[in-house]
Amino acid sequence: MATTGQAKKKKKGTRLWLIVHSWLALPLWVLIFFVCLTGTIATVSQELVWLVNPDVRAFPPRPDAVPLTYDAILEAIREAKPDVAVSYISRLAMPYFALDVLADFPDGTSRLLFVNPYTGEIQGTGGFFEFRYFVRALHGWLLVPFSGGASWGWYIVSGLSVPLLGSLVSGIVIYKKFWRAYLNPRIRLRSGARIFWGDFHRLIGIWSIPFIAIIAVTASWFLIQHALTHNNVTISTARLTPPLASPNISYSDNKKPRWVSLDRAVNAVSEVFPGFTADFISLPGSAAGHIAVSGRSAYPLIFGNASVDPYSGKVLITRGLSDRSWLELVTESMRPLHTGDFAGLWLKLVYFFFGLLFTMMVFSGMMIWLKRTAQATVELARDVKADRAISTTSSVREATK
Amino acid sequence: MSTAKVKNNPHAGLPGARHRWRFHLSALLLFIPVASGSTFFHEEALFFGYAGLGEGKPAKMAIGPWQVEIAEYRVDVPATAGSSKTFAIRWDPGIADRIKASYLKIAQPHTPRTAGALLSGGHFRQTADVLIPDEIKPEDLLWMTVEAWDGSVHHANIPIYEVSSTTSAWLRRQPPKIVTQP
Fold first, then answer.
1. What are the φ/ψ torsions at residue A264 (nearest 5 degrees)?
2. CB A330, CB A366: distance < 8 Å
3. B28 has pLDDT over 90
4. Once rounded to an integer, what is the mean pLDDT over residues B119-139?
5. Which DSSP letter does residue A61 get?
6. What is the pTM of this model?
């Protein structure tokens, strides 16, 4: 007797969790589906551009070919386009990609140049539409413009982390002994749509637990982070980079003095960070600006940054792992963990695969609900009808008695 | 009397018992990116210089031996006095190399140290957030200071209404300031 009572209580509890689970995502299911889908595309957006646009591809001419140094790249650009000024050079952490070089043109536009890292050839020029950034903006803040450092689109998207965390937890609670299904996976194809979508939802659900947990936790950090920035709260321990005192140099040709060699700047920074590869170099945006160098070092999730005086070549400020607080180490790891862009193409493909599964989770959840409510409504209608029919006959009998 | 047992509704408490279609209304939220799309592309074009120097009509200004183009980055009014407004400038290619630094300020600058906001950005096109002083008047001037690499310093000014008619119109609408003498 006591056991059945307990079982009943348990069943009631599960039912409550099921109700919670259903209400969490369903009211917003189209938006969640859209955010999952665009996020999945965003993980491989760079590779999609690579497939479509031959200008961004760069293969080594010989197997033993070494990429040009940054100075050689600058020189090659100067020769090909003497009237443009380079603003930054970005080396993607992937092989077979051209360098992204942002250049200022005399007409006032800034355009990306796709530069071959082996030959220095400018293979193409981008416009202001950049697919990667577009997908990222669509996924991250629904294109809602930022004003005062915040976008309400960002709040909407990152706010979805709350129902997401709830769905994850309630899903695990409802699915009794889900670990058994790792060894005995089950998808019933011939028992109707309701059964199929249910099996599908549960099977990919249990295999996606770590992925969904990563996405939900990192996304909730984006929510917190946005609220902090919006309210001018910072957890950063980074010192502000002081502007250079204006250099007191006048030149006889009255022109801008040359900046130090980029290779020298990179070498100086490499001495500070062990295992450093300079992935990104930006040139000063004014006479008081620095050469900024950043790149991956020993810990792939966080970049090391350094500022170099463009006139003396001295490293002014460095910021590596040891300069960060533990809170920064955790929070700054959130973005790469969310995007999966820190260990090469294979990890991006893993993220893409699980992103697709995740998108299908949202869809299958909606399908289960559709089929279940449809079935339930039909059953309910049938029972009520049967009940009415019986009660009418009995009342007729009673009346004719 | 009825003998058939009506089953409990297995769907009780679950969403959408009657109005299943309501849960597809979340599709309407996809109008957010559709509606924001044009602003997004406009901002991108502006940022990369494809939409001109700024949203405002550029004015030409002579400074020292040179000419500079100047425009308000956005046609809008400052949120309050004491906030800032972004202006953009563009140098011709022959000139850009000779300029060490340039500054903008709403008030006459006296030394390069007090010349106002430093313009920065690209080689040819640069922007600066100019502070809107509390005591600003509609007929005030926007001053530019240029320090050249040969050591020379030049000043020039332009009435605010010529570069930002919205700001001067806004200033005219402001109630007169009550100045309390200490």
1. -65, -40
2. no
3. yes
4. 90
5. S
6. 0.88
**How close B176 gets to chain A, by Cα (Å)?**
27
Please write down the HEC assignment for all residues of A21-47. Answer: HHHHHHHHHHHHHHHHHHHHHHHCHHH
Q: What are the structure tokens assigned to A199, written together? A: 């099996």
Which B residues 118-157 touch A at CB under 8 Å?
118-126, 147-151
- B contacts of A372 (beta carbons < 8 Å): 11, 14
* Structure tokens belonging to residue B28: 């309407």
Determine whether the interchain pair A288/B11 forms a contact, defined as Cβ–Cβ distance below 8 Å: no
CA distance B64 to chain A (A): 15
Q: Cβ separation of B50 and A128 shorter than 8 Å?
A: yes
- A388 Cβ neighbours under 8 A, 6+ residues apart: none
Chain A nearest-CA residue for B98:
A255
Phi-psi region at A101: left, alpha or beta (left = phi > 0; alpha = psi -120 to 50): beta
Collapsed DSSP state (helix, strand, coil) of residue A113: strand
What pLDDT was estimated at residue A257? 81
Q: How far apart are alpha carbons B74 and A291 in whole angstroms?
A: 29
DSSP, res B5: P
Shortest Cα distance from B136 to chain A (angstroms)?
A: 23
Asked if the Cβ–Cβ distance from A143 to B40 is below 8 Å, we say: yes
Q: What distance in Å separates the CA atoms of residue A277 and residue A304, rounded to the nearest whole number?
A: 9
Where does the pLDDT of residue A392 fall: very low under 50, low under 70, confident under 90, or very high at 90 and above?
Answer: low
Token digits of residue A327 = 């809170």
Closest by CA position to A235, among listed A306, A326, A307, A317:
A326
- Residues 6 or more apart whose Cβ sits within 8 Å of residue B85: B72, B74, B76, B78, B129, B130, B132, B164, B167
8 Å CB contact of B27 and A30: yes
Instruction: Report the distance separating Cα A26 and Cα B23, nearest Å.
Output: 6
For residue A22, what are its two tokens?
A: 């259903």
Predicted local distance difference test score (pLDDT) of residue A1: 46
What CA–CA distance (Å, rounded) separates A102 from A125? 10
The structure tokens listed for B34 are 């559709």
Q: Which of A27, A287, A387 sits opposite B100 (nearest CB)?
A: A287
Q: How far apart are CA A161 and CA A320, in angstroms?
A: 30
CB B122 within 8 A of CB A87: yes
Range list of β-strands (E), A126-253: none
